[in-house]
Amino acid sequence: MPIKFPSARAGLEGTTQEFPPPPEKPKDPDLAAADRVTGLDALELGGKSDKPSLGVRIWRSAWPKLLAVAIVLFAWQLVVWAEWKPVYVLPGPVTVFKDLGDVVTTLDFWGGVRLTMTRALTGFALAVAIGTIVGAAVSRFAPLRAAIGSLITGLQTMPSIMWFPLAILLFQISESAIMFVVVIGAAPSVANGLISGIDYVPRTWLRVGQVLGMSGFAKYRHLILPASLPSFISGLKQGWAFSWRSLMAGELLVIVPGALSIGVRMQQARDLNESSLVICFIIVVLVIGILIDVLFNAADNALRKRWGLTGS
């Protein structure tokens, strides 16, 4: 019986038939996880395209503060119009800001600001160094905490003006008397902030550090201090507030000859019954305090952003 072979047409048609695709290789789990993370990152970044411009963000942050300033100035002017006190005792905003503009254009004013800020930064730096050492020691040694833990809190709540009679007896009328009060007013806040931050370091992190071989100074430098930074920054901010208030009280009470600081100039204006200048220096102290607070808030926000604690 003759054998039938497929025709050439059938053979050509047979070559065009579709074959099933080869089986896909299973994906590496690590690559799959990376793809998912990349997708989440892209989704998160995609939502940031609606972020407002820099000018809009500045305006949203500034207008509540400007409104508060406007309300205060309006209330101040209302009190002046009500003639609660004579104008030479309580001048209006227009008079005060005119005098403030004249004051800030003088070299003597900026010399006083430089002296005051030098004292503030020097005293605060000493307070941070002492408070950090004391806070680290108290948090590390339980007997030391039992001995002086409550004492640190007591020193923090003590009014700084109570230290000035002792400071004058110890150091006479000198820069050292002012520095003593500034340091002793700020150091307890710094120490308490560090102690609180170390207390709230998760125990799991400490065990991980122990497994990695961290001990002694390396453990504090690479694990405990970075983990306690949020509370530590809050302690620094509070310590600055105490040191700034202590310094202003010191400059009013301890007048060092030849040192024309902001407090001394304010005291001179009070002795000469120049109410407008007194209010001018009050505004200067307030503005400096606000600017320092803005710096601390920026550092705090940067830290929160680094730790992923900012809102969406």
Summarize the structure in words.
The protein is globular and about 70 Å long. It is mainly alpha-helical and 312 residues long. It has helices spanning 8-15, 29-46, 54-81, 93-103, 107-140, 142-157, 164-171, 175-199, 203-211, 216-227, 229-253, 262-271, 275-306. Helix 4 (93-103) crosses helix 13 (275-306).
Kindly state the percentage of residues in helix.
over 70%
Q: What fraction of residues sit in β-strands?
A: under 5%
Global geometry: globular
C-alpha termini separation: 84 Å
CA-atom Rg in angstroms: 33 Å
Q: Which structural class is indicated by helix and strand composition?
A: mainly alpha
Look at the structure and give the mean pLDDT. 79
Please mark out the parts with pLDDT under 50 across 5 or more consecutive residues, or reply none.
7-19, 28-49
In N-to-C order, the SSE pattern is HHHHHHHHHHHHH
Number of separate strands: 0
Largest sheet data: none
Number of helices: 13
What is the secondary structure topology, with strand pairs?
Blueprint: H1 8-15, H2 29-46, H3 54-81, H4 93-103, H5 107-140, H6 142-157, H7 164-171, H8 175-199, H9 203-211, H10 216-227, H11 229-253, H12 262-271, H13 275-306
Helix pairs in contact: 4-13, 5-6, 5-8, 5-11, 6-8, 7-8, 8-11, 11-12, 11-13, 12-13
Q: What attributes characterize this protein structure?
A:
312 residues, mainly alpha, 0% strand
In short:
The chain is 76% helix and 0% strand.
